[in-house]
Amino acid sequence: MRSGSRISNNPVRTAGKYACSRLLYTANMSERILITPSILAADFGKLQEEVDSVASADWLQVDVMDGHFVENLSFGAPVLKSLKTKLPLDVHLMVSNPAERIDEFVDAGAAHITFHAEAVPERADQECLVDAIRKKGCTAGIAINPETHHDALQTMDIDLVLCMTVHPGKGGQKFIKDVLPKIRDIRLQHPDVMIQVDGGVDLETAAECVRAGANNLVAGSSIFKAKNRAEMIEKLRHSV
């Protein structure tokens, strides 16, 4: 079995805590913040080398775009399967048919899978898909776009909420500060859920996100454009 398999690195949901081989994490803000580089910002021509350069992170995010839910196309399961890493692979499905895409990414080594509430708006369908992901051995999350109210999260029996702080589909966008109150509301209502933010995360906005209640920071450009990526990961981790 290749390194990075979900058996050895999968975040495990137990009693409100999230565990992986690298760390035990709770929603307590005094705990270590998870840093998740997004390979959407990496150099695709030397992708394995780019992945190796962020080995000190906690998770590794793979953005999957279908050209329908969002305009752009990105990674497929074969790219995910080719990666060699000990980091848990966090698959963000920006697709219109996530239920039909789960198996291919589980087989490719995903540890965590997030789908969008906008693509699966009904409570029964959200619950069914979360259950299907967990039965495959992965943790499950639901993402909401910047303009989407958190009431779109029809079920909170999930392992992670992803609050998009840019519009999905393109890297390098400016952070949307209007999302911060939504993060605060979710944290107040659900103190034990992992809240991930994705989009425009740098040293300044990372601190704002953590203060609002986020505890998993997805960063693309700020990490992959840094001269010292390991140093940037540490700075983001301790940005508050």
Describe the structure.
The chain has 240 residues and is of the alpha/beta class. It has one domain (6-237): Alpha-Beta Barrel (TIM Barrel), CATH 3.20.20.70. The chain is 28% helix and 20% strand. The protein has helices at 6-9, 47-52, 77-82, 102-107, 123-135, 180-189, 203-212, 221-224, 229-237; strands at 12-14, 17-19, 24-25, 34-37, 60-65, 89-94, 112-116, 139-144, 160-164, 194-198, 216-219. The strands form two sheets. The protein has an eight-stranded parallel β-sheet with strand order 4-11-10-9-8-7-6-5. Helix 4 links the parallel strand 6 (89-94) and strand 7 (112-116). The protein is globular and about 45 Å long. The termini are far apart. The model is unreliable at 1-30 (pLDDT under 50).
Number of domains: 1
Largest sheet: 8 strands, parallel
**Considering DSSP H and I runs of 4 or more, what fraction of the residues is helical?**
25-40%
CATH homologous superfamily placement: Aldolase class I
How many β-strand runs? 11
How much beta, percentage-wise? 15-25%
What's this model, at a glance?
The chain has 240 residues and is an alpha/beta fold. The protein has a single domain (6-237), classed as Aldolase class I (TIM Barrel). Helix content is 28%, strand content 20%.
List strands and helices in order, with pairings.
Elements (H helix, E strand, L loop, with lengths): L5 H4 L2 E3 L2 E3 L4 E2 L8 E4 L9 H6 L7 E6 L11 H6 L6 E6 L7 H6 L4 E5 L6 H13 L3 E6 L15 E5 L15 H10 L4 E5 L4 H10 L3 E4 L1 H4 L4 H9 L3
Parallel strand pairs: 4-11, 5-6, 6-7, 7-8, 8-9, 9-10, 10-11
Antiparallel strand pairs: 1-2, 2-3
